[in-house]
Specification:
Elements (H helix, E strand, L loop, with lengths): L1 E5 L2 E5 L6 E3 L3 H6 L12 H6 L15 E5 L7 E5 L5 E3 L3 H4 L6
Antiparallel strand pairs: 1-2, 2-3, 3-6, 4-5, 5-6
């Protein structure tokens, strides 16, 4: 993982697949900031391949993560840790929350 900072909020991004890990409140903070989708530089086609992944472990605490679906303007699935509150978005998933709904 590499550290990526946007407006003083630091998240972790996988150097291989470009998925993004957010600590407990980082995702919601960034969703309120215009332009924050720029941290998601991954190819969404790579991310789509990971959607069926099972047994995903939290990068922070190594607990089993649970697949969740975002609420609001666009539905996106992502993995959430019920232990530490972190969330992991495959490449392109965080950015897709910013796309207008057709």
């Amino acid at each position: 993982m590499e550290k990526v900072t946007y407006e003083k909020i630091e998240v972790d991004r996988c150097t291989q697949c470009k998925g993004i890990y957010f600590d407990q409140f980082e995702k919601n903070q960034l969703l309120k900031m215009k332009g924050s989708e720029a941290i998601d530089i991954g190819d969404s086609k790579v991310g789509e391949k990971n959607d069926d992944a099972e047994n995903v472990k939290c990068p922070r605490c190594s607990e089993q993560m649970t697949t969740m679906v975002s609420s609001g303007r666009r539905r996106v699935s992502f993995d959430c840790c019920m232990n530490c509150g972190g969330s992991y978005f495959d490449a392109g998933e965080f950015r897709s929350l910013w796309k207008p709904v057709p």
